[in-house]
Amino acid sequence: TAGITQAPTSQILAAGRSMTLRCTQDMRHNAMYWYRQDLGLGLRLIHYSNTAGTTGKGEVPDGYSVSRANTDDFPLTLASAVPSQTSVYFCASSDNRGQADTQYFGPGTRLTVL
Amino acid sequence: GQNIDQPTEMTATEGAIVQINCTYQTSGFNGLFWYQQHAGEAPTFLSYNVLDGLEEKGRFSSFLSRSKGYSYLLLKELQMKDSASYLCVPLDSNYQLIWGAGTKLIIKP
Question: Does the CB of B90 have a partner CB in chain A at under 8 Å?
């Protein structure tokens, strides 16, 4: 199985432009997550989804939006990118949220905003 | 506040043993994960401890002491491919993962 896939692998984006990072999982996990990872810092949760049709805000949600139309897909949208959103973005999934379920990660998207 | 304390970087020799220590302070506690992250890659699951004691899984073992807020990851028979960052990730009372910057482990031949 593929597990979790993310697209694109990397992207250079002009400030002010919008972009959607794609994430798809084939493990039928209920919960999905978006994190950003900046050099020297731990992962920071942007948004999460407990199940299809629901989403919630994480630690750093400003400037980002998500949707969860079905179990498999959890896209992350930057409406108007700013240089501080330059980061590596990881999508993850787990059986459930609110339990000690292992999170499995996609390969990441490296985003540079100029 | 919630806090994780791990060494920023450690160096060890191929074939040797290394112990990566982690102390944590969280609002409640529901177990602790260890993840491995190679440079430029995603974190991958290594272990989960919720009870005190040692969990052994091949060359890797993880230990937990809840009363001390302490865990360690023990890596035996080190291989060059073990060069990576190791992330100590406790779960708080809301089952939220608390991520720190981790320990960068450098293996030398």
Answer: no
